[in-house]
Amino acid sequence: MRALRSDASAVQAQINVTPLIDVMLVLLMILMLTTPLALHRVPLPLGANAGNDVPRMLALSVKASGELYLDGGAVNRAQLATALAAAAVQDQPPLLEIRPEANTRYDYVAEVLVLAGNSGLSAIRVVGAQ
Questions:
Q1: DSSP assignment letter at 89
Q2: CA atoms 79, 58, 113, 67: torsion sign
Q3: How many other CB atoms are found less than 10 A from the CB of residue 20?
Q4: Which of these, 76, 75, 80, 65, lies nearest to 117 by C-alpha position?
Q5: pLDDT given at position 27
Q6: I need a surface site. Which of 4, 13, 85, 107 has the fewest CB within 10 A?
Q7: What pLDDT sits at residue 23?
Q8: In which element (H, E) is residue 115 found?
Q9: Would you call 129 helix, strand, or coil by DSSP?
Q10: How far apart are the C-alpha atoms of 13 and 18, rounded to whole Å?
Q11: In whole angstroms, what is the distance from residue 6 CA to residue 13 CA?
Q12: Under 8 Å CB-to-CB from 86, ≥6 apart: which residues?
């Protein structure tokens, strides 16, 4: 009877596989998440086109008071819409660079972006205030 008790209470060494399974599941999840990202390719234009001219730029300043200046001259919103629509139908439409002042309200910038988008210009850049 004593022999049975000593065998039953003897410590048996076994490998704990739970941490191994946890690590394998984490690696599987990482693999599942990163594989689709590696398969998508984004075509980017290469920059060394010697035949293309640098596009003309239109500088639009938006002041904190809501005033607009297109290439240094003051314009109202109707004049701006007309000028942008005329620029959009050119053979090589210009790049519109919008420069709001640091304290300009978002509404003013959003209005200008809507005008620029409705004009048909495809190249619009907003430069942050410094």
A1: T
A2: negative
A3: 10
A4: 80
A5: 95
A6: 13
A7: 95
A8: helix 106-119
A9: coil
A10: 15
A11: 16
A12: none
What are the tokens at 92?
């090589």
- What are the domain boundaries of the chain? 2-39, 57-126
> What digits encode the pLDDT tens for the residues 14-28?
888 899 999 999 999
55-84 pLDDT, tens digit per residue, is: 788 999 999 998 999 998 999 999 999 999
Structure tokens that stand for 33 in this block:
């998440």
Of the candidate ranges 14-18, 33-37, 60-64, 111-115, the one whose mean pLDDT is the lowest: 33-37
* Secondary structure E strands in 1-130: 57-62, 68-70, 73-75, 95-100, 124-126
Edge to edge, what strands does the sheet with 68-70 contain? 73-75, 68-70, 57-62, 95-100, 124-126
Domain 57-126 of CATH type 1.10.3720.10: no
In this prediction, residue 92 has a pLDDT band, given cuts at 50, 70 and 90, of: confident
